Amino acid sequence: MLEELIVAGFGGQGVLSLGMTLAYAGMVENKEISWMPSYGPEMRGGTANCMVSVSSNKISSPIISRFDSAIVLNQPSMDKFADKLKPGGLLLYESANIFKINTRTDIEIIGIPAITEALLMKNAKIMNIIILGAYLQLKPIVKKESILEALKKVLPEKYHHLLEINRQALEKGAELVKNLKEQAVH
Predict the structure, then answer these.
(1) Does the pTM exceed 0.70?
(2) pLDDT at site 180
(3) Domain count, the chain
(4) Which stretches in the chain have pLDDT values below 50?
(5) Deepest in the core among 17, 34, 133, 151, taking most CB within 10 A?
(6) What's the DSSP call for residue 39?
């Protein structure tokens, strides 16, 4: 098993922490991982992305030019990375922030209203975990329990009281995808 993923958006959307959490979860499960962040000079509002590889075998390089999956949280990321997905890949995007959707027919494209749901849960900062829950529902490369264990390492201890809302966010993301899939069938 090898999953090569790009997570991309604006700084402040939790792009790097989403990727780091996924990487730590892979480590919890004794998988081979690679996490390579990239961001502009601005802390918030600039572009940010990270490449994450999770594998059952050694990873030859952390640099990826074609991806199995992309999680995109803003329009510039959609424009930049959608065409870098391998045929048969998954493009998961934040549907409240992106209006011009890529039209490729050889990949699966799914929009999730993660920020809307995060606001309904009264915590905008869990948007990235909602979309991570959606991603893991579609591609269960690590267990949700491993994500929760990883969050204990990624979140500073002063934020460990937020672990429960992050668990709920993972579940919400999974539920959103299940509902979308059910609607597509009917």
Answers:
(1) yes
(2) 86
(3) 1
(4) none
(5) 133
(6) E
Of 12, 174, 163, nearest in space to 97 by CA:
12
**Residue 31, token pair as written in the block:** 């998988």
pLDDT at 42: 57
CB burial of 41-75 (b: ≥16 within 10 Å; e: otherwise) equals eeeeeebbbbbbbbbeeeeeeeebeebbbbbbbbb
* CA–CA distance, 177 with 150 (Å, rounded to integer): 22
Please name every residue paired with 69 in a beta bridge, in sequence order, or none if there are none: 5, 90
The pair phi, psi for residue 103, each rounded to 5°, is -105, 15
Please report, for the domain that includes residue 164, its CATH number. Answer: 3.40.920.10
Instruction: Spell out the residues 6+ positions from residue 172 whose beta carbon is closer than 8 angstroms to its own.
Output: 117, 121, 130, 133
Q: Give the whole-angstrom CA distance, residue 113 versus residue 116.
A: 5
Domain extent, residue 80, equals 2-185
- Do strands 2-10 and 67-72 pair parallel, antiparallel, or not at all (unpaired)? parallel
**The one-letter amino acid at 118:** A
